[in-house]
Protein: Fatty acid synthase
Organism: Vespula vulgaris
Amino acid sequence: MGLNRNRCLSNFFFGQDQVETALRFMAAGKHMGKVLIKIQELNGFLVQDKAVVASMVVAEKRNKSDMNNVVDAVLNILCIKDLKSINPRTPLPELGMDSMTAVEIRQTLEREYEIYLTVSDIRNLNFETLMGMNNKLMENNYSHKNDTNQVLSIINILKQFYDEMSNELAIPLKTNPVEGRDEIFFLPGIEGYAGAFKILESNIKSPATCFQFQTNYELKTIEAMANFVLPHILERLKDRRKFMLIGHSFGSLVAIELARMLEVKGFIGRLILIDGAPQYLKKLIQENLRSSSQEELENNILYDIINAYESGKDVELELELKKCNSWDEKLNAWLNVLSPERKELFSKVDRRNVIHSVYVRLRAIATYNPDPMPYLRAPITLFKPLFPPILNASYDYELQDITEGKVDVHVVEGNHTTMLCATEIAMAINGELFECAATIKKT
């Protein structure tokens, strides 16, 4: 009996390469005799009265070096050695893709290349489409790099220099509140002003307040900024125990710290973070303001700002900065390099201080360490842009490392700044995105 059992096990062993080859043959309307014989023999074994069959699936170890681009990654998953051997317009299911490899392809595209496709998209996918995706991804790498530089070169950050900036700490947003909804709280990006939320506020169905950091460069850490805002939130929470915090970019860090402080006091809440998280923003700074010292960081910030407003002045600024021994001297040197019309714009005290406060906040991101804090209990909804400033960030920006609650991740149209136009963000704030998802699930 034992000998027979061993013979059966030997006969019924399927190597992955055999199965994949068989699938491709069968997809082409052919069959492999050897595999067919094994299936027939296995069928006879299974119909016995006391058949015992065990199987084991061993995951194939794929080499990341085989995933240089989107096309190579999918070729590798489908075990196709040469793209020239197939018709690029042939749908992937006809090339041997089954439900398991479809899942692997989908997860690989999401994890490695941040390409998000539906099940239907995957089913209709072919290599011609994949080549188009790969070309677009390569083109976007250059524009994304410039996009990222804009995020930290403060082209977007300093847009409000052309507007009147409010000096109020708490700014009521012009929302369209529905009766019975509680007030919610917004924390702005590194610029520190509520203006960024103007494109979003009219779609919000709750009363909302944005807490501005303004040009307050005395608040040098994330914890200090959260402590500064906390009393004003507590005053507005009054008798209720629930809160919702929405943070954009830099404001996400302050929102996380505020949530921790509120939970210690017994409050229960929810966080909506718009392209922001501690490790993600640290990486963003490291990649775009590569600095080995504080002095170099100061210089790089000023180079970025001068390039945003006065092209061709960076060489002159570099010479001037070499003569400086302090940040204040560097800021004065930066102002002196500006053209007369720009100098008039930036010479106002508040607008000069914005540059100083941006520098302080960039340093606050670099030094912020959320690890010692107790785990949050609040669930987090993270919104990421379709065109992210960092292509190799982890899927959830490592937010699951700081909360016991669930982390939901959504990708929306736009970049780090323009994503605020996405209707999904307003829907999530209103609680409609989750209601919509629940309805779809039921149907």
